[in-house]
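ok, trying the design again with the full structure, not the truncated one.
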């Protein structure tokens, strides 16, 4: 019998209210309770963007857009690693709907052992007997993803005096030193998007580093903005190529935190729109769903 294909879209997850923050952070931290200071900090960050992240809503919208492309014969379900709807529940739902082959697509274009691999492990742990799991480990160079980011960049109409800064989520340096290919894939995505958009010169920075004392990939975006401002830069356009939708890493870390750093040094900072349910991005997801 031909396996019935289905699609699991996997993302990080986010609490739906500030009251859920302690439990959410406990899950993010692998079961370790967060400190009261961390809970308060994250509540403050979420409060600055309206009290909740749109991550779940947008991911569900991406899933609905993909489902409309694939039709009823290929069910699509969303699962989150750290909050509801959990990956485990999504896998069980697909199995209950008769799927015996699940294509797992992480909504993170570049592979990392700390993100994409964790999503894959969560899905495999939930698989019932007789269900096959096919993971998409990376799509950082997929032509339609590159086109989607290039479209957003073109829509922003970069000005001649604007510095273009591609960004992605930071990782501990030890992870990259141990062989994680994430930083190389971020650099490749940036190169391809710049070429597609006709951008000859660009910079790269990282954002959203964890709250640990160990070294993380850099330069940190906010520090980088201050440094460039001190050197005379007046305008910067941030292009977040490590993210595919609006959430706290975009709405707080760029729109609030990095924007404040820019104001401190007299830099005008703006960013491209997130992909969200961009038809070109959904094209990429459809291709991954059909060919993986």
């Amino acid at each position: 019998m031909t396996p019935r294909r289905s699609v699991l879209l996997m993302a990080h997850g986010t609490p739906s209210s500030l009251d859920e923050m302690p439990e959410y952070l406990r899950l993010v931290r692998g079961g370790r309770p967060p400190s009261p200071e961390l809970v308060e900090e994250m509540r403050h960050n979420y409060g600055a963007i309206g009290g909740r992240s749109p991550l779940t809503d947008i991911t569900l919208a991406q899933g609905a857009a993909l489902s409309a492309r694939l039709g009823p014969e290929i069910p699509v379900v969303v699962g989150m690693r750290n909050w509801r709807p959990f990956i485990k529940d999504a896998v069980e739902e697909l199995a209950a709907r008769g799927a015996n082959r699940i294509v797992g697509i992480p909504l993170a274009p570049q592979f990392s052992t700390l993100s994409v691999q964790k999503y894959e492990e969560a899905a495999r742990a939930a698989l019932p007997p007789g269900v096959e799991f096919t993971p998409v480990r990376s799509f950082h160079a997929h032509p339609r993803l590159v086109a989607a980011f290039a479209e957003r960049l073109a829509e922003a109409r970069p000005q001649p005096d604007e510095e273009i800064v591609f960004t992605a989520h930071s990782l501990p340096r030890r992870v990259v030193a141990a062989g994680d290919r994430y930083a190389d894939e971020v650099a490749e995505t940036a190169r391809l998007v710049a070429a597609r958009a006709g951008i000859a010169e660009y910079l790269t920075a990282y954002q959203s580093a964890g709250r640990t004392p160990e070294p993380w990939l850099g330069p940190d975006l906010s520090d980088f903005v201050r440094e460039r401002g001190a050197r005379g830069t007046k305008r910067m356009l941030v292009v977040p190529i490590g993210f595919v939708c609006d959430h706290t890493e975009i709405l707080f870390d760029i729109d609030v935190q990095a924007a404040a750093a820019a104001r401190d040094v007299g830099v005008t900072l703006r960013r491209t729109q997130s992909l969200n349910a961009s038809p070109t991005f959904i094209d990429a997801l459809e291709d991954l769903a059909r060919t993986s």
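Keeping the full-length input from now on. The CA atoms of residues 207 and 221 lie 5 Å apart.
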